[in-house]
Hints:
Helix content: 25-40%
Number of domains: 2
Low-confidence stretches: 312-321
Strand order of the largest sheet: 3-2-1-4-5-7-6
Number of strands: 7
Shape: globular
CATH superfamily of the largest domain: Vaccinia Virus protein VP39
Mean pLDDT: 93
CATH class of the largest domain: Alpha Beta
Number of helices: 13
Order of helices and strands: HEHEHHHHHHEHEHHHEHEE
CATH architecture of the largest domain: 3-Layer(aba) Sandwich
Amino acid sequence: MxxxxxxxxxxxxxxxxxxKVVGNDLSNKVFCDMFAGTGIIGRSFKREVKQVISxxxxxxxxxxxxxxxxxxxxxxxxxxxxxxLNNLSLIDTGFIYQNYCMGSGSGRQYFSDENGKKIDSxxxxxxxxxxxxxxxxxxxxxxxxxxxxxxxxxxxTASVYGAFLKHIKKSASKNLILKSSNFIKNSxxxxxxxxxxxxxxxxxxxxxxxxxxxYNQRQYSANYHILNTITLYDNFIPKGKTGLRExxxxxxxxxxxxxxxxxxxxxxxxxxxxxxxxxxxxxxxxPDIKNIMKKYGIYSLEKKDYQxxxxxxxxxxxxxxxxxxxxxxxxxxx
Length: 334
């Protein structure tokens, strides 16, 4: 997925820096990815650690990580279900078509009419299978993740779901094809949560805590509200031109709250090693973070400059290169 703040391009560097501090053998370590997003960092450690604990307050992220992190053994007949979902008859009474496609009269165009109907048809069938206990939870989250990612590929947006485009762009005109969201298989079990980070930190413990909170006032709930709607598939009245739902407003996106929340998280963390990813455009400055973290142990800092791809607000989804710095703040708690 084209995801704001994704650490895909930085994952190897982050993994390398963590091993420099903790050691190369992580087989007995519990690793927590507290603000998991699409789970890129948790996935990169899944084969190497004893257990991954993954958490995010966004429900679509919870679904993604229930598949990519918690699913760790083969799911029987999963491709049979993918094939069946790809061949369903389309419905025109579903929530996505009725509220987020132009043909329904909604005035919104996040998807082509046909793709909106297909998203609904697949989502309704997945829910029906789960309610009738035809599928396991593992298969449910696998199928739902497959739908989220397949729908994202044909969304009629510039990058995020804060707005839709006036005309259907080329990639959005293609027919949705449900493709499998393959996950890493291993012998260890893992845990995935959908909790406020400052509440969860008081209930878990481990060895390595990786933090990648929001950097600025951008609200992920607003930017990815359609993904939450597809995963929750609940009834509500979409608000305004963009069809927003009620959403979480993270304290890490509020300048008046972020410092106290961050210190509370560090203070209550029952982890020996803490690594914080944060860039030079964040609400907290480098000295702010250093002053908080060094109260609780031995602090150090690593920095990497990289070229981030930033989506233009154009229909052809061109990208411009934007250079920024990524800081990895390191704490060994004592």
